[in-house]
Design goal:
DNA polymerase, domain 1; OB fold (Dihydrolipoamide Acetyltransferase, E2P); Rossmann fold; six-stranded parallel β-sheet; 22 helices; 39% helix; binds adenosine-5'-diphosphate; binds magnesium ion; EC 5.6.2.4; DNA damage
Length: 670
């Protein structure tokens, strides 16, 4: 009954157009709110600021002239007086107005003025007799004019709005003084005052964020309520292991360990993110928790995104667990058939196994005896599907995701809202901060000298460039070029080249040579693996460093400073004060979380979206950065409702739970 064709003016062709814009019935018409509004409210000179967008009355005092600047681009100019004061008006691409604007005509201009030059640059011009003091909804719907869409929406409203439930609980509407949904619908397609606009925005923002949190928290609570095996671990073994470490754990490490072990012990599954800067000591925390699970008689699988990383973890864990009754095994794509079947055999029949590897861990032929704990390192490098597959290899195993990418707190609560989060901020005291310095490209001689100094000490250097090859569209430095340049300059040293276009085998060969100190300088794009640990590399030189986000530079910088030897990061940039100012933060702070907050402020959230599917996070009105405080309130509100089991049966929440169910069917959160 709510078919689109039931709306006057919608025939088969219009229906197709609407469908293409994801509008399938009359309710969709109602719910497609304007993207934004153009406000045409008359102001006076006294209240108008130069440069601001204003709407003001004017009287034409000269015959308009048109300048044709280029194809499809012309400028109409004429004189007006505004409150007795002369202005010269310019408006683009309105040559057709020339014959309408007679001297003495009263008009209304929207645009901005400059009183020092007595000019007015208009974006909209209306005749005064046609002008309404109004707020115009802008829908931006492909192929359909705002006016037309507005008509459809209004008719849909008349016929169908009364069938729509208000699913935001009454008590929340009252708590935040939000308007009821029907009032929202009444004004959203045609607000008349700024106050109304404000009311709409408040309700929509809160509702969007609340519903988002409702979904996230529901998923998190549901996951948490899934039963896992009870794991009774050997406390003494864990204590002994901690005592055997050559250092004392930091407070953050202790707290993280406790949180994870508590989850492991609990009869419910764990779904937890462990985040901390490179070098904050996540691996040893993981190791303690791995040991706890092994000691309780369950197997553990640990997945790394690359062979190099998997091998590195394997070596570390092998050494740690050498004297313990557990088998640490490595499974990669590189094994011979015999090696592979030997390992798979153990995994199938032995419970005292820690299996480390790449995505090979969830190949079809890998059968676990009793997988109880799954760790994924650098979790964002795996797709949802891959992570799910590995999880399904066990019976409700506990899952820990590790990430070395500090995500700003305000984003983490939305990006990872459906998980529990443990953060390690503190770094082991033994770590040497990397000394970071900015250099202009004009100071290359100095840069070369500093490089030479490190090379002479037999230390190794990473050189990072934004591009692989020469590009016709930018003059940014590229790896190929820099590689040649350095080969010319450092004739006595061996230089390696690494980027994504190099074949996998060669990549590994180059990495191996670098690890063995047979390559002194490694030129690469940002592909140098996160987590690669080459203690002898003590310098990093980043070309066009202003092209990278601060978080990314910090990640890169994490490749060095991995031993007690002093390390240096040289950030090269073109001369530009603004660029310099942003980069200077790198010189003074070594806190990845602080840098990621800066990135968020300066570059927006886009940078971080790669770390999680963010399809669910496109909000119409809310801005996850600016409205982060609402997001937090909304999270608590959602939890308050979800944690009270009776609420699921309370009639007043039925519309809300109906909404939730529909959403969960639509999106398949992992
Ligand atoms: P992450 O995995 O978080 O990048 P790692 O676990 O690799 O960090 O730790 C980095 C280095 O710090 C390792 O060499 C590790 O041995 C060392 N380390 C970890 N915890 C401590 C600590 N509490 N005190 C001193 N050194 C530590
Ligand atoms: Mg690590």
């Amino acid at each position: 009954m709510s078919r689109l064709e039931s709306i006057k003016g919608i025939g088969p062709r219009m229906k197709d157009k609407l469908n293409r814009n994801q509008i399938y019935d009359a309710f969709d018409l109602i719910r497609r709110f304007p993207k934004r509004y153009e406000v045409y409210h008359l102001t006076t000179l006294k209240d108008a600021a130069d440069g601001a967008r204003i709407t003001i009355e004017a009287k034409v005092t000269s015959v308009p002239t048109v300048a044709y600047i280029r194809k499809n681009f012309n400028r109409l100019s004429f004189q007006v007086v505004i409150e007795g004061r002369p202005f010269k008006v310019a408006i683009f691409n309105r040559d057709y107005l020339r014959n309408i604007l007679d001297i003495g005509e009263d008009i209304v201009l929207t645009g901005s003025m400059d009183r020092t030059k007595n000019t007015f640059t208009a974006t909209t011009l209306k005749l005064k007799r046609n002008f309404k003091n109004e707020i115009e909804p802008i829908y931006n719907i492909d192929g359909i004019s705002d006016k037309q869409f507005h008509k459809f929406a209004n008719q849909a409203m008349d016929d169908y709005a009364s069938f729509i439930d208000d699913d935001l609980p009454q008590e929340l509407q009252e708590k935040y003084k939000l308007i009821p949904y029907h009032e929202l619908l009444r004004i959203v397609h045609q607000p008349h005052t700024m106050k109304e606009l404000d009311k709409i925005t408040r309700r929509i923002k809160y509702e969007e964020l609340f519903k988002f949190q409702l979904k996230m928290q529901y998923t998190r609570l549901k996951n948490r309520s899934k039963k896992s095996y009870l794991k009774a671990y050997d406390l003494q073994a864990v204590k002994d292991f901690i005592a055997s470490l050559p250092y004392e754990l930091t407070n953050d490490q202790k707290r993280a360990t406790n949180q994870i072990i508590k989850d492991i012990k609990s009869p419910y599954i764990m779904n937890r993110l462990l985040q901390g800067d490179v070098g904050s000591g996540k691996t040893v925390v993981a190791a303690i928790t791995v040991l706890a699970v092994l000691s309780s008689g369950y197997q553990v699988a640990m997945m790394a995104p690359t062979e190099i990383l998997a091998k590195q973890h394997y070596r570390t864990f092998y050494k740690w667990f050498e004297h313990l009754p557990y088998d640490v095994l490595l499974l990669t794509g590189k094994l011979t058939a015999t090696e592979r079947s030997e390992i798979l055999d153990k995994v199938k029949h032995q419970d005292n196994v820690l299996l480390i590897g790449t995505h090979a861990l969830f190949s079809d032929d890998v059968h676990y005896d009793n997988l109880g704990y799954v760790i994924t390192d650098e979790q964002h490098r795996f797709g949802v599907e891959q992570r799910k597959k590995l999880r399904e290899k066990g019976y409700q195993p506990d899952v820990l995701y590790m990430s070395a990418t500090p995500i700003p707190r305000t984003l983490a609560i939305s990006l990872f809202g459906d998980m529990d989060i443990t953060t390690i901020r503190e770094k082991p005291a033994s770590r040497q901060a990397v000394e970071t310095k900015l250099f202009s490209l004009k100071q290359m001689d100095l840069v070369y000298m500093l490089m030479e100094e490190e090379l002479r000490k037999n230390h190794q250097i990473y050189v990072v460039t934004p591009l692989i090859l020469e590009s016709e569209t930018t003059d940014l430095s590229n790896a190929q070029n820099v590689f040649r340049q350095l080969r010319n300059h450092f004739k006595d040293y061996s230089i390696g080249l690494m980027h994504s276009k190099i074949k996998q085998d060669n990549k590994e060969q180059v990495m191996k040579l670098f690890e063995e100190n047979k390559i002194n300088i490694l030129v690469s794009t940002t592909v140098i693996e996160v987590g690669v640990d080459i203690a002898n590399a003590t310098m990093m030189v980043v070309f066009d460093s202003d092209r990278f986000g601060l978080s990314q530079l910090h990640q890169l910088r994490g490749r060095i400073g991995r031993s007690t030897i002093k390390s240096y990061c040289l950030l090269l940039h073109r001369d530009d004060d603004e660029v310099k100012e942003r980069l200077e933060i790198m010189e003074t702070t070594d806190d990845g979380f602080a840098l990621s907050e800066q990135d968020l402020r300066l570059r927006g959230p886009g940078e971080f979206f790669g770390y999680r599917q963010s399809g669910d996070m496109k909000f119409e009105q809310a801005d996850i950065v600016q409205d982060a405080h609402i997001l937090e309130i909304a999270k608590q509100d959602a939890l308050d409702i979800l944690q009270q089991k009776d609420n699921y049966y309370n009639p007043k929440y039925q519309p809300l739970f109906k909404y939730l169910k529909a959403q969960l069917r639509k999106t398949n959160l992992d």
